[in-house]
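Lab notebook page, bench 4
Experiment: in silico fold of construct C2
Operator: M.H.
Input chain length: 373 residues
Purpose: comparison with the prior construct
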Amino acid sequence: MITISGFLAIAVPILIFVLILGVVVFIHELGHYLMARRAGVFVEEFALGMGPKLLGFRGKSQVYEEDRTLYSLRMFPIGGFCRMRGMDDTVPDDPTALNNKTVLQRMSVIIGGSLFNFIAAFLLFFLLVLLDGYSFPQVHSVREDTPAYHAGLMAGDRITHINGRRVALFEDFVTQLEFSGGRPVDVRFVRDGQRHNMYITPVRVGNHFQLGFFMERRFGFLDTVPESGQRVGVFGTMRTSAEMILFNMRMPFTLLARFIAGDTMPEGAGVMGPIGMAGEVTVIYQEVISRGILPTFLTMLFFTALLNAALGVMNMLPIPALDGARLVFLGIEGVRRRPVSPEREGLVHMVGFVLLMVLAVFIAYRDIVRLIY
C-alpha cells in the first residue's frame, strides 16, 4: 500500500522535473521569439506545452494592426513552439515573413533558441558557484594508504592534465578517472612552479574511481568559510561558469566519440529521454531532500543549468527537423545564392522528424525498462 509520504516522494520530484523542463523549453522558444521580433518576423503563436490549447490571448500588433501574436498554454507540459509566418511555407511579398528575410536574419532567428539556453546555463552556473562555491583539481590533503598517498602526491599540487587531457574543473577530473576504467592514469601536476608527471592507478569506491585525495575548494556566499578557506570572487566565478558551459557542450560529443571507438564509458552514461531524466531527478531529489530545502533547491538549479546546456547543444546538431539542420540549409543557400527548394527541404525535415519520433519511442521504452528493472 502506497502511503502519502511515499506518493509525495515520487510525485514531487516528477512535478519539479516537469516545471524545470517547461522553464528550459520556454527559454529556448523565447530566444526564437525575441530574435524573430528583432528581425521583424511576425510570430503567429508562442506556445508553452503541446497538444490542445488550454488558455490563450492575443498580444499587441507587431507591424500590421491585424497581426497579433497568440500566446497559448497547451495541455501537455512537455515542449513548446514558436510558430512564425513563412517558416514552413513560402509567403510571397510579405515583409514580415521569415522566408523573405536575409540569410543572416534567418540564421539569427534559428540560433536564438540555443543561444538563450546557453546564456541561461551560464547565468545559472554563475549563480550556483557564487552561492555554493566550487572544487577544483588542486590537492588539499591526501588520505593515507591510497593510490595518491603511495604515489607521492602532496598538498598544494595543482593537477593540470589526466592522460594528456586538460582538467580545469572537478567535473573534468572525475570524468577522466571514469574514462580510465581503473587503468593507470598519467597525472600531470604543478608543484612549486615545476611540472611533474606520475602514473597512478585509481581505485573504485562505490560506483566511481578515486585517487584518494581531497580537492581545494572556494566557498560560496552561503558557506561558512574556515580560517584557511577563501570565498569565490566574481572573476573566478565567471571563469568557472564559462568552463562549466564548455565542459557540458563538448561532453555529448566526447561520449559519442568514445562509444563509436568502443572505449570505456562512465557509469550511467547513455542517451536518456524525458522519462529517464524524470527518474534521475526523482533519485537525486530523494537523496538530497534529507539535507534540507536549500541543498535540494541548489541541486535542482544545477540540473536546470545542465538541461539548458544539453538542449542548446542538441538543437544545434545538423539533424533534420532540428535547428542545426535548418542552419545547414541556410548555409547552402548563402553559398549558392539561392535557396534549396521548399519541397526538398520539407521532405528532409519530415523524414528526420519521423526518425526522431521512432528514436524517441525507443528511448522511452529503454527508460521505462531501466526504471522497472
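Observations: The two ends are 20 Å apart (CA to CA). The domain at 128-269 is CATH 2.30.42.10 (Pdz3 Domain).
Next step: discuss at group meeting.
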